Every structure is written in structure tokens, then in C-alpha cells.
């Protein structure tokens, strides 16, 4: 069976099997992805990240329900990434527990992924898995990851829109909100807004945002967002090209604030389309993918040209502190000339 | 880069209350290097089959304490087959009367485990049956 063809025809088992091949890095998976590539680039990729347990899966469940109810309903895929154990390589992927409302809907496809060898919260194969789902016709792809370290950068590179989900009690302490995670947020969500401490969390987030976006800024849609722009200046209405991450409260277990959140996501898409940001993100993503593949290919090709003994000998001189790492590179790459 | 991981769905069908046993097994499978998709309580056979398909799992572990196994298990097996997943191995844990075990195995279940079964036994059985079938089909 031609996997790519079956995926394009909407065969869900073929899609599921393709995702496994892609995750396992097989030749078959790669060939299918190559055949599918012309069909990619249509989906809206939404990253959902934040500290453990803030309600990301519950929120993804609600957002997917909301998107399925919209007119016309769009097809939704969910990729939920959880860390692999660095010791055993195993993983418990438990995000589906919060997504039972979505079962039985053929317009939804949920896939759990372990991060496998990857250092960040994203697996190496996540972007390829997303490409396959995009080609399969899912118009919105929600990518859930635990926000930790490198994952933030990865998700920002992959997604068009990044939601950072915080919760009261975690966020009141400025230390607890890592600056990195705020930098990548297009929309900040304070979930569990039914719990006490929401105001404190919101204040902390807003003041951190102000630090991150010090320049006078006006929202793309000034009228609807004036309460969020702290440095209002009507004269700047011409320079409406900067997006300040809005802060939205939600109660994911009840669905409160989800309609508003979906509205903000739609506004972010409109903003990206109006300002050319959509193309910019597409370009940045494909370029970083190209660069990464190029890097791997060049390293592989170069390794084939260097005798193992020479490499080991240079490495030994490095270990003996006879040469510096830079000198070692110079010697391996140019035969000694820096 | 290429690595094959055993993927197992752990689900708790039926209406009975707790999932302690299912969680213990899930952890043991993870510690054995497997990827466990944990779906939690009160899963219908339809939900289980749908998750098994989307996750392309090698095996499904069902924890059944309610006594409804003779109704639930054939339904799950039928749905998996209807989806083209006849290769997926099914393992049952929980309170299963001795006389039902041979009948479940006959239906196509790969293993039945009562309370107190060492998790190592379950881990080894799943690994052997999944890797064994992969060798045959490749
Ligand atoms: N009170 C309250 N609890 C919530 C809310 N949203 C989620 N929860 C609960 O918070 C817990 C964690 O929810 P999840 O959706 O699994 O959170 P998560 O961020 O996906 O968790 P990880 O994937 O483990 O990082 C669950 O017990 C939810 O029921 C909310 O709005 N209010
Ligand atoms: Mg989650």
C-alpha cells in the first residue's frame, strides 16, 4: 500500500502508521513525507506550552471542541508531547485523559508523542509529524508541550501562534515565570481562574510583559484591546504593526473564557496575515529545517572523508591540552590552517 | 536515529472506580522502556479502539475489575479487527474467574493476569509477543 496516497485519501490507519514511521525515522516514513510535502503549508499550527499541570490538555480539549463547533467546522489534529525518561527511554503519555470529549469525532485526530532523545520538550520528529497531519488535511494543529528549557524555542519556531498557559499559585512568584517562556508567548492564558490568586498572577504577568515589551505599542485592533495596551498613544495608530500578547483568563474544566481565547487566536492569525508575519514564520521554520538537514548532511559527508585514526589522534591532543578546541577544528576541517 | 519503541495503550473500561492497578502496570512498562499511552477511567470499547488506532499501538492493556470482561473484551477485539488492527495484542488484568481465562485466550487475548502478578511477567510477555510478531510480519 502506498502510505502517502492512503493518507491523502483520508485513511486514518495509514496516517497513524505513517506517524510511527516518521517517529522511528524509517526510510519508508521519509519517502512518504517527501511525497506529501507539496500538500503541506495549509494548517494553522498552534503551540500550547507552560509549566506542568497548569491545564494545557484540558484547554486543548476545550479549544478543539470550540473549533469543531465553529462554522464551518475545521478539522483538528492534536500532538501532545511528553518527556521520555532519560534513564529507561520509556514514557507515560497521559494527555488523552483530559481529551475524552473529543472521542468519536472523525474530524479530530489525537497523537501522543514521547520526546525520545531530544533535550527539549519537543521530539526531533514533532515537526515531521505535524507536516504529515497538515498534508492529511487537518486545518488546525494544536501542539502541547511542557514548557521547559529548549522546548520554548522549538515550539516558537514550529508554531504560528504560541499560547503560554500559567495558573494561579505558580505565577505569583516572578521567579517562577521564566522570562524565556514569556518571550515566545503570543497569547498568555491564566487557566484555573476559579482558584484564588488569579489577580496576583495576572499582575505579575502583566508587569513581566511590560518589561519584555517596553516600547510604546498599540494593538492591531486598538478598539478591542485598549485595556491591554499600557502605553496608549493615539498618534501611534499608524504604526499598528506590533502585537502585545494579551492575557486571557480561562477555567478549562468548565469551558469559561474559551470562546474569548478562540477570538484572540483568530485575531492573532489576522494580525500575522496582515503584517506578513505568517510568511515570515513559515520561512523561518523551513529555513531552520533546511539548515539543520544541511548541517547533518555536511557533517556526515565530512566524516566520511576523515580517517578515524586522524580524528582520534586530534581528539587525544585536545584531551592532553596540546591544542585548543578551535585548533582541533581547524586541523580537522582545513588540515591545520585556521 | 531510527529506533523502534513498543507502544502500549493502557485503558480502564467499565464503570468501576479505581485505576491503581492500571497505573502500576503503566509505570512498569515505562520503566521497561516502553511508551505507554494512558487514557484513564471509564473508557468505552469505542474510545479504546479509536485511541489504539490513532496511537498506532502494538498492544492494549485493559484493566477490568467490574466482572464485565466477557462483554467488553469481545467488543474491543471486534472493533480493532474492523479497523484493520488485528495485529494488536490484547492483555487483560484484573479480577477474572479462572474458568473465563481459556475463553478469553481463545477469543484472541494474548495474556490474562490476576491480582498479584509480578509486573515483570507482564512486561516480558508484552515484549515477547510484540517483538515476536514484528519479526514475522517484516
Ligand atoms: N480548578 C481547576 N482545575 C483545572 C482547570 N483546568 C485543569 N484543571 C485540573 O488540573 C489538572 C491538570 O490538568 P491537565 O489539563 O492535565 O494539565 P496539563 O498542563 O496538561 O498537565 P501536564 O500535561 O501533566 O503538564 C487536572 O486535574 C485538571 O482537572 C481549571 O480551570 N480549574
Ligand atoms: Mg497535558
Report how far apart the termini of chain A are. Answer: 52 Å
Provide mean pLDDT of chain B, rounded. Answer: 90
Tell me about the largest β-sheet of chain A: 7 strands, parallel
Biggest interface: chains and residue counts?
A-B, 31 and 32 residues
Average of the residue pLDDT scores of chain A: 86
Spans of at least 5 consecutive residues with low confidence of chain A: 216-239
From the N-terminal CA to the C-terminal CA of chain B, the straight-line distance is 20 Å
The CATH class name of chain B reads Alpha Beta
Structural class of chain B: alpha/beta
> Under CATH, the topology of the largest domain in chain A is which?
Rossmann fold
- Oligomeric category: heterodimer
Descriptive overview:
The complex is a heterodimer of chains A (about 350) and B (about 140). Chain A is about 45% helix and about 10% strand. With about 350 residues, chain A is an alpha/beta fold. Chain A folds into two domains: about 40-275, Rossmann fold (3-Layer(aba) Sandwich), CATH 3.40.50.300; about 290-335, no CATH class. In chain A, strands 4-2-5-1-6-7-8 form a seven-stranded parallel sheet, with helices on both faces. The model of chain A is unreliable at about 215-240 (pLDDT under 50). In chain B, helix 4 links the parallel strand 4 and strand 5. Chain B contains five helices and five strands. The mean pLDDT of chain B is about 90. The longest helix of chain B is centred in the last third of the chain and has 19 residues, at about 120-135. The interface of A and B includes residues 19, 26, 88, 97 and 110 of A. The site of guanosine-5'-triphosphate has 17 residues of chain A, from helix 4.
Amino acid at each position: 500500500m502506498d502510505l502517502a496516497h492512503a493518507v491523502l485519501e483520508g485513511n486514518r490507519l495509514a496516517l497513524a502508521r505513517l506517524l510511527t514511521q516518521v517517529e522511528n525515522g524509517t526510510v519508508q516514513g521519509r519517502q512518504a513525507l517527501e511525497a506529501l510535502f507539496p500538500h503541506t503549508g495549509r494548517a494553522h499550527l498552534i503551540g500550547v506550552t507552560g509549566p506542568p499541570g497548569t491545564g494545557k490538555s484540558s484547554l486543548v480539549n476545550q479549544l478543539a471542541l470550540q473549533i469543531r463547533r465553529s462554522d464551518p467546522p475545521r478539522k483538528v489534529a492534536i500532538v501532545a508531547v511528553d518527556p521520555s525518561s532519560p534513564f529507561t527511554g520509556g514514557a507515560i503519555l497521559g494527555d488523552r485523559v483530559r481529551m475524552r470529549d473529543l472521542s468519536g469525532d472523525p474530524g479530530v485526530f489525537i497523537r501522543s508523542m514521547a520526546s525520545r532523545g531530544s533535550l527539549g520538550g519537543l521530539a526531533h520528529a514533532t515537526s515531521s509529524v505535524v507536516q504529515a497531519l497538515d498534508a492529511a488535511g487537518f486545518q488546525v494543529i494544536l501542539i502541547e508541550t511542557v514548557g521547559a528549557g529548549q522546548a520554548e524555542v522549538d515550539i516558537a519556531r514550529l508554531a504560528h501562534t504560541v499560547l503560554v498557559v500559567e495558573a494561579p499559585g505558580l505565577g505569583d512568584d516572578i521567579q517562577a515565570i521564566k522570562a524565556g517562556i514569556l518571550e515566545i508567548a503570543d497569547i498568555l492564558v491564566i487557566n484555573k481562574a476559579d482558584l484564588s490568586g488569579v489577580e496576583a498572577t495576572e499582575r505579575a504577568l502583566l508587569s513581566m510583559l511590560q518589561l519584555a515589551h517596553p516600547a510604546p505599542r498599540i494593538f492591531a485592533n486598538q478598539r478591542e484591546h485598549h485595556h491591554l495596551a499600557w502605553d496608549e498613544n493615539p498618534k501611534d495608530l499608524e504604526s499598528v504593526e506590533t502585537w502585545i500578547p494579551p492575557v486571557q483568563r480561562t477555567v478549562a474544566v468548565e469551558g469559561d473564557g474559551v470562546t474569548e481565547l478562540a477570538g484572540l487566536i483568530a485575531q492573532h492569525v489576522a494580525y500575522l496575515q496582515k503584517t506578513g508575519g505568517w510568511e515570515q514564520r513559515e520561512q523561518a521554520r523551513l529555513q531552520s529545517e533546511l539548515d539543520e538537514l544541511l548541517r547533518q548532511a555536511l557533517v556526515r559527508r565530512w566524516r566520511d572523508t576523515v580517517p578515524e585514526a586522524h580524528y582520534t589522534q586530534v581528539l587525544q591532543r585536545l584531551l592532553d591540552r596540546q591544542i585548543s578546541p578551535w585548533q582541533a577544528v581547524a586541523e580537522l576541517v582545513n588540515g591545520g590552517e585556521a | 536515529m531510527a529506533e523502534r519503541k513498543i507502544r502500549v495503550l493502557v485503558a480502564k473500561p467499565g464503570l468501576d472506580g479505581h485505576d491503581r492497578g492500571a497505573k502500576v502496570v503503566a509505570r512498569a512498562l515505562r520503566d521497561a522502556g516502553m511508551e505507554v499511552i494512558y487514557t484513564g477511567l471509564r473508557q468505552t470499547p469505542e474510545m479504546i479502539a479509536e485511541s489504539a488506532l490513532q496511537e498506532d499501538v502494538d498492544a492494549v492493556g485493559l484493566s477490568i475489575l467490574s466482572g464485565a470482561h466477557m462483554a467488553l473484551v469481545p467488543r474491543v477485539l471486534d472493533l480493532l479487527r474492523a479497523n484493520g488492527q488485528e495485529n494488536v495484542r490484547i492483555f487483560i488484568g484484573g479480577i477474572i474467574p479462572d474458568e473465563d481465562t481459556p475463553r478469553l485466550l481463545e477469543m484472541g487475548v494474548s495474556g490474562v493476569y490476576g491480582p498479584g502478578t509480578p509486573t515483570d511477567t507482564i512486561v516480558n510477555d508484552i515484549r515477547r509477543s510484540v517483538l515476536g510478531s514484528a519479526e514475522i510480519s517484516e
